[in-house]
Automatic annotation (TrEMBL):
Pfam families: UAA. Keywords: Membrane, Transmembrane, Transmembrane helix, Transport. The lineage of its organism: Eukaryota, Metazoa, Ecdysozoa, Arthropoda, Hexapoda. It comes from Hermetia illucens (Black soldier fly). One of its GO terms (molecular function) is 3'-phosphoadenosine 5'-phosphosulfate transmembrane transporter activity. InterPro entries: SCL35B1-4/HUT1 (IPR013657). Its main location: Golgi. This is Adenosine 3'-phospho 5'-phosphosulfate transporter 2. It is found in: Golgi apparatus membrane.
Length: 366
């Protein structure tokens, strides 16, 4: 065989290998479970099942911990335990994946992320000492409002009219839900509203800072979790030692180890695993569909909260919750129609009203 024939054979084999590589599907992996070779529908259903099961467990255990008599003042201590568990989980994940890579994001950025993470989770956990769990979840559903403002101020992003209409709908629904809660709930307290509102502001900032840092430095998720929660743990530990709340929290939890450390372990584990399923859902199906799934999960969480834990109920919860859902739907719809303007919206409304008036006139003529 001549040299030219050998070169042709090599080129053909290289070309076939290249085609095989191109046909190779992108890797879809959740911790040790490889979903790469399942079809997209199966991947979607498995991710949905993971999100629903894990976050329903997360929400149930979070509310269950706060039903323990005398635990309400120790929301920050629960956050300290949760941070410790998250650090252990992220270290174990990095060891399993053998990814002892050097840190990519600067420590100064992680210092800011840790502060914001502490504010988000600490204030959110502590707010349950003052608010009903459904009210807290409704506030979390309205995270779009501060995120929208944060993306404009931090990342200089531009948003379409549907995003602003979605934010307005969420604000109205949230105001009505909070008003209903203040009238029927004995647990309602303005301190809790201030806490969960501050948590949302931190959440808005952390989302934009994380997105920018991860995009610029190409850092993996487990690195961000490890350093954000690790530094945040140090922050909170120093604060609790200085205020004396650490020892009182330890003393209380040692009296109820199963209801505190045991439930907190399951609570933290379900939250950590839930994050992995949500990120996989975003990567395989896109953010709008992931937002729809997580929103549906929150609606089921509220329903389960009313079923398993006794609390007052009013029909205004339903109407105000539906307004919030409308705002979330508008936000998801806007992601599919990014170029939609106010003029387009008005024209569609005119055409809709025009078609209805035409139909009405036709019925009158008949």
């Amino acid at each position: 065989m001549g040299d030219s024939s050998k070169q042709e054979v090599i080129l053909i084999s290289d070309f076939s290998k290249k085609n095989d590589d191109e046909r190779e599907p992108p890797q879809v992996k959740i911790l040790c479970f490889d979903l790469t070779y399942y079809n997209q529908t199966t991947q979607f259903l498995l991710c949905c099942a993971g999100v629903f099961v894990l976050y329903l467990i997360y929400g149930y255990l979070q509310e269950l911990i706060f039903t323990l008599d005398g635990f309400k003042p120790y929301g920050w201590f629960l956050t300290l335990i949760q941070f410790a568990y998250y650090i252990v989980f992220s270290v174990v994940e990095r060891r399993i994946e053998n990814k002892n890579q050097p840190r990519r994001i600067p420590l100064r950025t992680y210092g800011l992320l840790a502060f914001l993470t502490l504010g988000t989770m600490g204030l959110s956990n502590s707010s349950l000492g003052y608010l009903n769990y459904p009210t807290q979840v409704i506030f979390k559903c309205c995270k779009l409002v501060p995120v929208l403002i944060g993306s404009i101020l931090i990342q200089k992003k531009r948003h379409g009219p549907l995003d602003f209409l979605a934010a307005i709908a969420m604000c109205i629904g949230l105001a009505l839900f909070t008003l209903a809660d203040s009238q029927v709930s004995p647990n309602f307290n303005t301190v809790g509203v201030a806490m969960i509102s501050s948590a949302l502001l931190c959440d808005a900032a952390i989302g934009n800072v994380q997105e920018r840092a991860m995009r610029e430095n190409k850092a993996p998720n487990n690195e961000v979790v490890l350093y954000s929660y690790g530094i945040g743990f140090v922050y909170l530990l120093v604060i609790m030692i200085a205020t004396g709340n650490l020892f009182s929290g330890l003393e209380f939890c040692l009296k109820h180890p199963v209801e505190t450390y045991g439930y907190a372990f399951l609570f933290s584990l379900s939250g950590y695993l839930g994050i992995q399923f949500v990120l996989t859902l975003v990567r395989t199906c896109g953010a709008p569909l992931a937002a729809t799934v997580t929103t549906a999960r929150k609606a089921v969480t509220i329903a389960i909260s009313f079923v398993f834990f006794t609390k007052p109920f009013t029909i205004q919860y339903v109407w105000s919750g539906l307004i919030v859902v409308l705002g979330i739907y508008l936000n998801v719809y806007s992601k599919k129609h990014k170029n939609l303007t106010f003029a387009d919206i008005f024209n569609r409304i005119k055409r809709l009203l025009g078609s209805r008036s035409t139909d009405r006139q036709y019925l009158l003529d008949v």
